Amino acid sequence: MIELNDVHKSFGKVEVLKGITASVQKGEVVCIIGPSGSGKSTILRCINGLESYDRGEINVEGLKVDRDAPSIVNIRTQVSMVFQRFNLFPHRTVLENVVEGPLYVKKESRGQALERGRALLAQVGLAEKADAHPPQLSGGQQQRVAIARALAMQPKAILFDEPTSALDPELVGDVLGVMRKLADDGMTMVVVTHEMGFARDVADRVLFIDGGVIVEQGPAKSVLNQPQHPRTQDFLRRVLHPL
Amino acid sequence: MKGFWHDTVEFFPILLNGVALTIIVTIGSLLLSTVLGLIWAMMRVSGIKALSMLSASLINVIRGIPIIVLLFYLYFVMPDLGVTLSALQAAILGLGIAYSAYQAENFRAGIEAIDKGQIEAAQSIGMGWWLTMRRVVLPQAVRIVLPPYGNVMIMMLKDSSQASTITVAELALQGKLIASSTFKNTSVFTLVALMYLTMSIPLILLVRHFEKRAGKR
């Protein structure tokens, strides 16, 4: 349902994506791993048009991603995003955060949106926080609200941009737990992450990106357990055994 | 001192007429400058180059002309161009336009202080530019903008006295008229000063309240 074909992207003189070709099937969980600055997040941000790309083509459900075309709204309502720094709206309550998109973008009825919003908060284990404001919550709680906000759009896929990187270590598990459940329920997910355990257990496929190209890709277990490329081997060694 | 009390009783009612006009000029030009300032600021952050440049040049032109010259222009020059304004209209228009430049820069600073992640989150749930502004950016920018906005209110209250230069009989001009006909300069201008101060104090307290609230977040 998501297809990238020879996607190039430069920031000024620095080319961060040097021809990315990949696809994500419906119901698939794809983890993107790689060193920082390798272009992982940029790929996600190009898929929902937060970033433009210079060359190549990205399609979502057959629709070409073009951040300046009106169709981008359609794509964004189908492909939600969860950010590293949560980006919840601090001036609105947790429940209002969740129903903001359904109410104001999809123009759903208030009753229906609120009902589903509450159900989603229960699903991420935060039913009792509905009326709190985001700054009152821990990072892990905020990220689970952000996942509920993404789900409220009833998307066909969710993009996760390092969803646990800004969390205290003891809070990471809650968020990964929610994501694991989503994967089990068949949600299509593209996850940029440094959580190798999550990638190994949950992902169908792993892409290893370095220097703006896909160095290696394949089933999660084979890429992570028997990496073929020396750069993948080197990266995994440093991530898994930092000392 | 006894003379002062006597003068107060005598002049206070006339000066109150001036206060009424001062308040009308201040509120009128405050509203106008707020609306214009918002428009300039929105043009500035619209991401459309032509609009943003137009707004930037407008702001600079307005900032570069003294208020008093702007007032003279509206009141004395516009009739030559076929547009006749009453003194009050010209005062509100002139002060409103003059202050719209400062309002715009203040609003823009508030809007640009909002974390980029907020805008991306709004976009990621399919919000367009206007919806993002209305639902996400402006409600948060208001908290940042309110304290300086309060300061602008105080400055506008005092600068409304410039309307006296185009014959609006607001507080300052009313005082000047009484003083020049009675020669009781001390009593009259002390009264005028006290009356401006009395109107400023609630605004000063309001600014302090805004600052406390903004500091909480």
Automatic annotation (TrEMBL), chain A:
PROSITE patterns in the record: ABC_TRANSPORTER_1, ABC_TRANSPORTER_2
GO cellular component terms, A-Z: plasma membrane
Function comment: Involved in beta-(1-->2)glucan export. Transmembrane domains (TMD) form a pore in the inner membrane and the ATP-binding domain (NBD) is responsible for energy generation.
One Pfam short name: ABC_tran
Record-stated family: Belongs to the ABC transporter superfamily.
Domain ABC transporter: 2-236
Matching SMART domains: AAA
Primary residence: membrane
Superkingdom of origin organism: Bacteria
Protein name: ATP-binding cassette domain-containing protein
UniProt KW keywords: Amino-acid transport, ATP-binding, Cell membrane, Membrane, Nucleotide-binding, Transport
Subcellular localization, as worded in the UniProt entry: Cell membrane
Record membrane topology: Peripheral membrane protein
Organism: Bradyrhizobium cajani
TrEMBL record, chain B:
UniProt key word Membrane: yes
Main subcellular location of this protein, as a coarse class: membrane
Membrane spanning stretches: 12-41, 53-75, 188-207
Keywords attached to this entry: Amino-acid transport, Cell membrane, Membrane, Transmembrane, Transmembrane helix, Transport
Lineage: superkingdom: Bacteria
CDD domains, A to Z: TM_PBP2
Listed GO biological process terms: amino acid transport
Pfam families: BPD_transp_1 (PF00528)
Compartments, record wording: Cell inner membrane; Cell membrane
Alphabetized InterPro entries for the sequence: AA_ABC_transptr_permease_3TM, ArtM/GltK/GlnP/TcyL/YhdX-like, MetI-like, MetI-like_sf
GO CC annotations, alphabetized: ATP-binding cassette (ABC) transporter complex
Membrane-topology descriptor: Multi-pass membrane protein
Gene3D superfamilies cross-referenced by the UniProt entry: MetI-like
Entry coiled-coil feature ranges: none
Single GO MF descriptor: transmembrane transporter activity
Domain ABC transmembrane type-1: 19-207
Annotated family: Belongs to the binding-protein-dependent transport system permease family. HisMQ subfamily.
Protein name per Swiss-Prot or TrEMBL: ABC transporter permease subunit
Organism for this UniProt entry: Bradyrhizobium cajani
